[in-house]
Amino acid sequence: MSFQNPNKNCTLCERLCSFRKDNIKKYPTYYNGPVPAFGDLDAEILIVGLAPGLHGANQTGRPFTNDYAGDVLYPILKENDLATGNYMKKADDGFRLINVRVTNTVRCVPPENKPTTAEEKNCRIFLAEEIKTMPNLKIILSLGTISHKNVLQALGLKQSFAKFTHGAVHNLPMRNMKLIDSYHTSRYNINTGVLTYPMFDIIIKKIKELL
Question: Whole-model pTM above 0.90?
Answer without folding.
Answer: yes
